Amino acid sequence: MEFSDHKAIYLQIAEYVCEHILLKEWKDEDRIPSVRELAVTLEVNPNTVMRTYELLQSKNIINNKRGIGFFVAEDSISKVKEYRKTTFIEDELPNVFRNLYLLNIDFKELQSSYQVFIEQNFRS
After folding, report:
1. For 117, what's the count of Cα atoms within 13 Å in the CB-facing half-sphere?
2. Cα 32 to Cα 27: distance, rounded to the nearest angstrom
3. What total of structural domains would you count in the chain?
4. Domain holding 50: CATH number?
């Protein structure tokens, strides 16, 4: 995994875990990699992965079953979407709005670009 400088590594790992859940690679009640396993895979400090897992536990996306490991929580997809939506609205959308304003892009133009994006990437 390539990490970028614009966001804390533990948050980028959280996105990685959430993406696995959204892509249904890790399903509700599935065991996920241990802190050490994921740290080795991603080549990061185990404390960084632990910080990620603590964040995701606080959002009820994963659960810790003591002595067994970490597991994807029930109804995880809706919880991931809620978490990612909140993060997007609070952290990324202000920058999008700023660029729309600075570049004088109108919402109609944005809407047509969005439709093209959906058609090219998600409709078969």
Report:
1. 6
2. 9
3. 1
4. 1.10.10.10
